[in-house]
Specification:
Strand content: 15-25%
Distance between the termini: 61 Å
CATH architecture of the largest domain: Orthogonal Bundle
Number of strands: 7
Length: about 180
């Protein structure tokens, strides 16, 4: 007798590579990030998926599918594409686009580019949505510890960032909105 695996709907399931659940279900995103996600969805749905479907159809027409690598890998790639398309559709539906461009304040909010001083080293970070994070470019999520420490602070303020290695003092040098 085989075991059937039943998914418990009360427990949130995260797909591989998926973004963790957001606080209060908010999915704030910048207009640029929203455009990037829409462009990726369009590329997958209109270009990549039809090409893979064509390859799979060709491979299926050759006969024996059990040892046909084009067929097997094509079907796997189709599942990956379909999974990513479903993910992007859900993220775009839940997105709240926040346009912080031209905001006239020295206070840190979503979309701010903040120049900070940490241990005599200056860094520039931009507070963005969870789907736009790129640490190598200084783009941090609004739910990250550093962003939470900076939110609502002003240029010239000192804030404390709690890290596993101890508290760090951050000085806010400049706040801009691009």
């Amino acid at each position: 007798m085989s075991k059937a695996f039943v998914r418990d709907e009360s427990v949130p399931q995260e797909a591989e590579g998926a973004t963790p659940a957001l606080p209060q279900g908010k999915n704030y995103i910048t207009p640029e990030g929203y455009a990037r996600l829409k462009a990726e969805l369009k590329e997958l749905a209109e270009t990549e998926r039809p090409a893979v479907v064509k390859t799979v159809a060709w491979a299926a027409s050759l006969g024996d599918r059990s040892e046909n690598a084009d067929y097997l890998y094509g079907k796997r790639r189709l599942r990956e594409i379909d999974r990513r398309i479903r993910f992007l559709i859900k993220r775009l539906e839940a997105a709240e686009v926040v346009n912080a461009k031209g905001r006239d304040t020295d206070q840190v909010f979503f979309g701010a580019t903040v120049r900070i001083k940490v241990k005599n080293e200056e860094k520039e970070i931009c507070i963005v949505g969870v789907d736009e994070v790129d640490a190598s470019c200084g783009r941090v999520s609004w739910v990250s510890p550093i962003a939470k420490a900076l939110l609502k602070a002003r240029a010239g303020d000192h804030v404390t960032l709690r890290t596993p290695s101890g508290d760090e003092k951050l000085e806010i040098l400049d706040v801009r909105y691009r």
